[in-house]
Amino acid sequence: MKNINSHKKLNYSKIIIVFILVIWAIISILPLYFTFITDLKEQSEVFTKGVFSLPKSIYLNNYILVFKGGISSYFLNSVIVTFVSLVFIIITSSFASYVFARLQFKINKTLFGLVVIAMTIPVHVTLIPIFLLTQKIGLYNTIWALVGPYVAFNLPISIFILTNFMKEIPHELEESAEIDDCGKIKTFFKIILPLSKPGLATIAVYATTVMWNEFIFALVLTQSKSNRTLPLSIWEFQGQYSSNIPMLMSVLSLAVLPMLVVFIFGQEKFVKRQVAEY
Q1: Closest to 198 (Cα-Cα) out of 267, 98, 95
Q2: 127 closest CA partner among 156, 152, 144
Q3: What are 181-197's pLDDT values in tens digits?
Q4: Are 246 and 46 in contact (CB under 8 A)?
């Protein structure tokens, strides 16, 4: 009887958890649904029909007007800055994490402690010093002014995540590689790095999301429209077309779609790792 009762309690708890997750999924999906159906409507249709009603026909003129407004340059700037910064983050955090996770030396824990402390520093505290430094070195009002801050602020959390991930890789694999005359560098590229793909996907998704949506540094370190990123375009379009909801939704759709793609590809790595472990 006790086993039956405990089994029933377990089933009830699973049902409650599934119910909560379904409600949470609906709440999360509704804003995306509203965005992706509204950007295909005419302006008058938004006010005459229900908020979540489907468009009577696919109206692409919103996207045409958005691209005529110059959003393509904003979009390209965001892609360049995010991609270049992400390459630096992945390369630097991979080497640093390997040192912290697999090599033993006297100040290993001290240096890793500094990395953890760096995670607690509010990024906007450094806004004025970075602004002054950017002016002095001649990078102000260029997209390259954003690369340095983006890399610096995402490195601590990336190193922290990847170091803990690399620590879980069995040491026996390294020992086998040493028997086959593999040095530390070859072991890193042949064994540690390939096995760290889920960890790399984690920091890639996290860092890309943060950099893609970053607003304050992009606003302060760039001035001309030709050098500004996508979040600033949303801000500017809102000021110009605040009453044109479909057009604003078109801008938001262009901003959201790349992040959805990144998340889908990153999630694939997580799922593969979980299935393999199971």
Answers
A1: 267
A2: 152
A3: 777 788 888 888 888 88
A4: yes
